[in-house]
Fold this sequence. Notes:
Layout: H1 2-28, H2 34-59, H3 64-107, H4 121-178, H5 184-212, E1 221-224, H6 225-243, E2 246-252, E3 256-259, H7 261-278, E4 284-292, E5 295-301, H8 335-345, E6 349-355, E7 358-365
Parallel strand pairs: 2-4
Antiparallel strand pairs: 1-3, 4-5, 5-7, 6-7
Amino acid sequence: MTDVLLIALFAFLGAAVAGLIGAAVLRLLRHRSLIVSLSVVAGVAVAAMLAGTLTVAWAMFLSPHDLYVVTTVVAMAALISLVTAVLLGRRVAAQSHELALATRSFGDGGTFAMPAGQPAAELAALARELAATSAKLDSSRERERALETSRRELVAWISHDLRTPLAGLRAMAEALEDGMAADSGRYLRQIRVEVERMNSMVGDLFELSRIQAGSLALAPARISLHDLVGDALAGADPLAREHGVRLVGDRIDEVPVEVDGKEMSRVLGNLLINAIRRTPPDGTVAVAAHRSDSGVVVSVTDGCGGIPEEDLPRVFDTGWRGSHARTPPAGAGLGLAIVRGIVEAHAGRTEVRNVQGGCCFSVTLPTA
């Protein structure tokens, strides 16, 4: 038993010396290629075995011939180990190089393409993560391009819609100054109408800026959905009568919701005004509200004739307006963007779909 312990001790001491030397070498070469590191690891393993074997052999006073045989066997093992380490290092280095090239194209604004072949499990996991990140960045770039397009359109439309009333205001003001206005009262009333319309546009811009900046402060309270929709219908009734549109709201469930009453009234008001202006005379705008598995759903259905399928994803974008809506009093195309912002601030969602003869805007809110 004592001899076995001595052999184990001598072997451990010899291997420990080789391991310490190998660790120092690895530290010095830590910035070199992976092939060098793997070769050092293989060399350290063989050197540790050789050091332990030689230490035990000298302690046991083996003959020179036996020592030569042991050394030769260990040398052959070292050679095979080094060759295996180099081949493995070259394979891993090649896979790393392919992954680096794919990542470089990804970083230059392209999309990440998975390298060919079957990489090691760790590299394959890294490639999958990079592919997922690439997909997310592609989606973000697409949203950024769409947002930038919406901003440019918004600036162009706002400039147009502000320039037109400003030109009219200046012309009417000059006519009043020069005493050329035959009916000054009519001019003053028209000036007031234009100022109110411009004030509404500026107010929409301010509201949208608060929503996009995340500074919209909500004061939620438990409200009956029936009362909320009823107030919105009452507020939109004069506009509906002016346009000859019939408002229908007889499918409203008695469902409680916890929302900011002022902001949700604006949501319903914007949806109703938009629906009334797009519905031809003698048409119908119907409002419905019910509880579903996903929450409380409020829908506004109009008779606009439908929205082109390619435009449906853009309906709630900032500044978007249909091709027939680019003249006053259509506004600046902010109403539906404000609707989406307020609803999302309530942890809800907005949707639009075409129905027979028109389209249906729906708002889904969490249940109280």
